[in-house]
Amino acid sequence: MEQLMRNFFLFLAKNKSLTNLAKRYGLRFGAGRFVAGATLESSITAIKRLNEKGMPVTIDHLGEFVDNEREAAEMTQHCIDAIKAISKEKLDSQLSLKMTSMGLDISDELVLSNMRKIMDAATKHNVFITIDMEDYSRCEKTLEIFKMLKSEYDNISTVIQAYLYRSLEDVQTLDEYHPNLRLVKGAYKEPQTVAYPEKSDVDNNFKKLIETHLLNGNYTAIATHDDEIIQYTKDLVEKHKIPYDQFEFQMLYGIRVERQDQLMQEGYKMRIYVPYGNDWYGYFMRRLAERPANVVFVLKGVFGK
Length: 305
Ligand code: FDA
Known about the structure:
By secondary structure, the chain is α/β, with parallel strands linked by helices.
């Protein structure tokens, strides 16, 4: 049943008509629990509250699957404005983005030119950028562009998904760039031909990725809500005397908030991924797919209980 629900929400996440409809109606159905606000301005209070608690954030202007140059230019400008706002408001914040918003599906020239505009602004304002990883069909191109940008700019990282068979090799290949990487389980619906179908295999691969990247001496963001993976990281760090400034934990805004506080109080760096914007629909559906129990929040949102 849970697998059925998961597939259903991942199917809904890809629906363009529903995405467009959702944009017009603002944050609905309990999405406000996972999305900080419809605009950056309305999210700044939530971001400052996290910073004041001692938690750095990475903000993400929601949006994906852009298929024309005009929209890609708008999304690029949004990122540049967000970088300026981080600097002006003195937020302890990085920026995460999806390259399909910058024209990844349109052409290499377009996405590279938009990314360089963003990276120039980020370098000027001293803001760190992470390229989120999208579905498998975009993985190779995302890594190619990441490598190109990483040889031009230092303040950039990307994401590796533990559910993909290829990921351990990617972490090893990327090592020559000494990259800061965010490691995650992976949030998209992928076929067995490219991704582990069993959770236990994904978890084992996640552990291998963490160990490999940390022991290679690289900065590692362990982005998970899973206690077993968190404990594995703590033990590994203890065993190999890895300094606390070589890694951080990351969690999503609104998910396992008490655990976030606890890890911070234990002395670990805990960064919160804070999404904002009116294109919240796909992101929200993927969070429901991860934990269908959250449907209860949606129903409360719909029926106002
Ligand atoms: P898992 O899903 O196994 O959950 C472990 C436990 O955490 C659950 O048993 C439950 O207790 C709790 N939990 C998990 N999800 C919850 C929820 N929605 N609500 C309440 N409790 C929940 N993916 C991707 O493909 N590309 C990317 O770029 C990113 N980026 C990214 C950044 C950050 C900061 C995070 C935390 C995650 C991502 N992800 C991602 C998403 C990631 O791939 C994955 O889908 C989610 O993190 C869920 O997997 P967990 O590792 O949390 O474990």
